[in-house]
Amino acid sequence: xxxxxxxxxxxxxxxxxxxxxxxxxxxxxxxxxxxxxxxxxxxxxxxxxxxxxxxxxxxxxxxxxxxxxxxxxxxxxxxxxxxxxxxxxxxxxxxxxxxxxxxxxxxxxxxxxxxxxxxxxxxxxxxxxxxxxxxxxxxxxxxxxxxxxxxxxxxxxxxxxxxxxxxxxxxxxxxxxxxxxxxxx
Length: 185
Known about the structure:
The protein is 75% helix and 0% strand. The protein is built from ten helices and no strands. The chain has helices at 3-17, 21-43, 46-62, 73-92, 98-101, 110-113, 117-129, 132-143, 148-155, 159-181. InterPro entries: RNA_pol_sigma-70-like, RNA_pol_sigma-70_dom, RNA_pol_sigma70_r2, RNA_pol_sigma70_r4_t2, RNA_pol_sigma_r2, RNA_pol_sigma_r3/r4-like, WH-like_DNA-bd_sf. This is DNA-directed RNA polymerase sigma-70 factor. One of its GO terms (cellular component) is DNA-directed RNA polymerase complex. Belongs to the sigma-70 factor family. ECF subfamily.
């Protein structure tokens, strides 16, 4: 995240704490897509993710007073979404494994996306093939551009765990992508 994004988050959070409904609405409009993408990656389906994120927003807005550093709003909110998704997965998991509960996010049509889309589609497919914890870590670090510390906060794991997941995920992605380039699957 850029310094401007952090500053905007901090300002919106501070204004929302005072009861400014426009600031709350702007904060929701600004960060909802990222929270929804994160929940979708973890849960594996968009509709259920929407429900989880809606419930998370209630907790997020009620808990703004507990947030100590307003500039860390996004990792804090992602952590709340992560916990809500975990609860939803546990609820759904009766009778099935976590790996089956989490599927790849919906991919755009390669034909509509343009020339670089095939590479992007291969990368998305490779990320989707990772174990759920690694896929979420990679997505937050590379796609959401969060720092290792912010990813740790968002996923509610130690910094060392994030680094280990990234190391293993990179190795698996390299193997998957090199295998695809050589005609292997």
